Amino acid sequence: MKKDIKYLHLGLGAAILLFAGLIYAWSIFKAPLRQEFSMLTEENLSLTFTISLIFFCLGGIFSGFLSGKLGYRIRLIFSAILLGIGFFLISQINPSSPRNVPVKLYIFYGVLSGFGVGISYNTILGSVIKWFPDRAGFASGVLLMSYGFGSLILGALASKLANAFGILQTFFILALSVPLAMIICTFLLKEPDKVQTQANKDKLVSNEEKNYRPTEVLKDNFFWLFVLWTILISSCGLMVIGNAAGIAEAFGAPAIIGLLISVFNGLGRVALGAVYDKFGDKRSVYINGFILLLSGLLMYIGAKFNIFIPVLLGILACGMSYGGAPTLSSAIVKNRYGSEYYSLNLSMMNLQIIISATIGPSISVLLMKNSGGNFATSFFVIIIFSIISLLITKAMYLFSGIE
Predict the structure, then answer these.
(1) Span 154-160, mean pLDDT?
(2) Comparing C-alpha atoms, which of 45, 41, 29, 49 is closest to residue 167?
């Protein structure tokens, strides 16, 4: 039983991130919110999600700074409460007196809920991966797959609730149930004690781990090249994810097929984690880049010849590559820069999300307008970005002084 206890805590961590991942179901909340509040514009709704991403990153940094001062349970409970307060305040917006509704959404969903989820994300990764020093890729993949599936699984449930009870009542139900579930899992979750931590380290070939302070990490060439690589991969993923349903419809397929990218996004997180554990970071980063290149080629060929099958395969490959990026980030930051400052170092890496979330959708909108709705130009950009990512990978290991 003791041998399997780490998998119990991995499951609990995955459950917490599943509930926290509901924040990414914003696309499901948008339409009913707009029906409830007619003054909301597409720009208001888009900005709400952007703010949630920004405060997700800030929440991660906040958790990283507090990791040596406050225990993981306190941080997780605080994050669950923030998420619940944000959802509860949305449920209390009065439709008959809808003053400043956009600003309220920015604060309640963007700031409070986004900040809370950022704390959960950072805390769970920092706590649970300690159980798996020799399988950081696998553990990261499982945790992040669950986080990615949160919007898919709970988002579908939220959609049914919204249809049955209305969007405001749905937020009220979620405000009570989601934090409660997170807190219950939090009380069951444990970090390995010092004896167990040392035993885990002893399983490694070398347990002489060097712990890099954030200031040291910021001076490292490898870190900045890896940030740039992650931005390219993530931007391409967001270009496709944001238009997956529209891409499917453009080629005569049901829009729901586009949702398969979410499944492969989740599977990619586990698959690339397994690749990382088996082959190390250099090969896994290259493999992820080649998957993205294959994705772009398939989608471009399909668009040129108006054949949906290669487009669909490209969409799925893009989802897998996009899902692999956060798993590789989590595992590489842990193994290259050590455990002691892992939470803060990871939160610095995750700041790229703000840039990626701006670049990907912006390029997609611009290209779609200039091409008259033709997706081929967007697919060609993915090919270019993937080639650049492979060149950056070469530079990461050639010029950074790290092998």
Answers:
(1) 86
(2) 29
The sign one gets for the Cα dihedral 131, 60, 142, 87 is positive
Domains and CATH numbers, the chain: 2-202 (1.20.1250.20), 214-399 (1.20.1250.20)
Handedness of CA 59, 65, 68, 70 (dihedral sign): negative
DSSP string, 170-215: HHHHHHHHHHHHHHHHHHH-----HHHHHHHHHTSS---PPPPPHH
- What's residue 78's pLDDT? 96
Q: CA neighbours within 13 Å on the CB side: how many for 122?
A: 34
Q: Which of 325, 373, 145, 357 is nearest to 239 (CA)?
A: 357
Q: Note the pTM of the prediction, 2 decimals.
A: 0.83
Helix (H/G/I), strand (E/B), else coil: 293: helix
Read off the DSSP letter of residue 23: G
Place of tokens 């990490």: 217
Token reading at 385: 């970005």
**Please, are residues 391 and 292 in contact by the beta-carbon 8 Å criterion?**
no
What is the Cα–Cα distance from 254 to 171, expressed in whole angstroms? 29
- Tokens in use for 209? 């781990």
What confidence score (pLDDT) does residue 31 get?
82
